[in-house]
Automatic annotation (TrEMBL):
Belongs to the iron/ascorbate-dependent oxidoreductase family. The keyword Metal-binding applies. It comes from Deinandra increscens subsp. villosa. It catalyses: jasmonate + 2-oxoglutarate + O2 = (1R,2R)-12-hydroxyjasmonate + succinate + CO2. Residues 15-25 have a biased composition (Polar residues). This is Fe2OG dioxygenase domain-containing protein. Transmembrane segments: none annotated. Keywords: Dioxygenase, Iron, Jasmonic acid signaling pathway, Metal-binding, Oxidoreductase, Plant defense. Residues 1-43 are annotated as: Disordered. PANTHER family: OXOGLUTARATE/IRON-DEPENDENT DIOXYGENASE. InterPro entries: DIOX_N, IPNS-like_FE2OG_OXY, IPNS-like_sf, Oxoglu/Fe-dep_dioxygenase_dom, Plant_2OG-oxidoreductases. It comes from the Eukaryota. Residues 205-306 form the Fe2OG dioxygenase domain.
């Protein structure tokens, strides 16, 4: 299938709608009742697991093993966890988030220079998916590539604020380092060779891309979502949330759990490709974002992905008569095109692969 070239209808920036000061939101953003955020669903005392990554390099073997176990349980039971002592300096994570906030507060004229198209999605955007007349999410975003270097194009990164590129470079380098560490941990925890996942992802030739989400204030947050329920298509996602504004909700059983971020923590979640390679021992869990009447929210979602033209399939070591292979082989390129055309639609994407087997 050829890449789609343009949006099906004129693009409206959610930030402009928000700043118009209307007390109601346009119909385009009103979700059907079953998709709206339900009040008080999440018990306030439940949160995703919090893991101190300093434990991975502790001098005491028992501490290292306990940390590996915590990560294993979080991957199997939640698909989501929050990490601290991850090696990214507190000043760097704050700077990365705040510089993007500044970008979204640049004039519309500046931001429009980077307006994106569905061909590559790079740049400033306001929708995912191409279905004409679709109900849209209450967010704008900025999408860029860091790896492979052949896709990195500084001309497609904002030039303003002037230090943005430097900060994004440093932040990106650190996220890739963290991704390499976690792939090793996941491999060992799955009983695979320590370099299994890194090799399955293409060794050094992984993909890494950043989506910065901007959720403007919303006068009717009960009627819409900042980001519809979806699972992340890639390998691992590293989410830097807005420390002061909750919004991310993770699906657990029949409930939506609101994530409460810890200072300078990074939220890690398993993407669809690791669900496939682990043959569903690790789950890529659905999540969504709710918005807020009084506060905007900025988050940085870093997607650490397999090289896009490698075949991804369940690890043969994990296939047994009791646990037969659940997924067909598919490249990440093929998988992503499938999703980009349809927009975020819950878990249907990876689950629908099963029926193709
Ligand atoms: C995403 C995502 C959550 C958030 O960008 O894929 O799930 O809190 N973001 O912004
Ligand atoms: Ni996501």
């Amino acid at each position: 299938m050829a890449s789609p070239c343009d949006w099906p209808e004129p693009v409206v920036r959610v930030q402009s709608v928000s700043e118009s000061g209307s007390s109601t939101i346009p119909d385009r953003y009103i979700k059907p009742p079953s998709d709206r955020p339900s009040p008080n669903l999440s018990p306030p005392d439940i949160n995703i697991p919090l893991i101190d990554l300093a434990g991975l390099t502790d001098g005491d073997l028992a501490v290292r093993e306990a940390t590996m176990k915590e990560i294993s349980a979080a991957c199997r039971e939640w698909g989501f966890f929050q990490v601290v002592n991850h090696g990214l300096r507190a000043e760097l994570v704050d700077r990365a988030r705040e510089i993007w906030r500044e970008f979204f507060h640049e004039s519309m004229e500046v931001k429009q220079r980077y307006a994106n198209s569905p061909k590559t999605y790079e740049g400033y955007g306001s929708r995912l998916g191409l279905q004409k007349g679709a109900i849209l999410d209450w967010s704008d975003y900025y999408f860029l590539h860091y790896l492979p270097s052949s896709l990195k194009d500084h001309n497609k990164w904002p030039h303003q604020p002037s230090s943005l590129r430097e900060v994004v470079e440093e932040y990106s380098k650190e996220i890739v380092r963290l991704g390499n560490v976690l792939l090793k941990v996941f491999s060992k925890n799955l009983g695979l060779r320590h370099d299994y996942l890194q090799n399955a992802f293409g060794g050094e030739d992984i993909g890494a891309c950043l989506r910065v989400n901007f959720y403007p204030k919303c006068p009717q947050p009960d009627l819409t979502l900042g980001l519809s329920s979806h699972s992340d298509p890639g390998g691992i996602t590293f989410l830097l949330p807005d420390e002061n504004v909750c919004g991310l909700q993770v699906c657990r059983g029949q409930q939506w759990i609101t994530v409460r971020p810890v200072p300078h923590g990074i939220i890690v979640n398993i993407g669809d490709q690791i669900q496939v390679i682990s043959n569903a021992i690790y789950k890529s869990v659905e999540h969504r974002v709710v918005v807020n009447p009084n506060k905007e929210r900025v988050s940085l979602a870093y997607f650490y992905n397999p090289k896009s033209d490698l075949l991804i399939q369940p690890a043969p070591e994990l296939i047994t008569p009791e646990t037969p292979s659940l997924y067909p082989s598919m490249t990440f390129d093929e998988y992503r095109l499938f999703i980009r055309t349809r927009g975020p639609q819950g878990k249907s994407q990876v689950e629908s692969l099963k029926s193709q087997k």
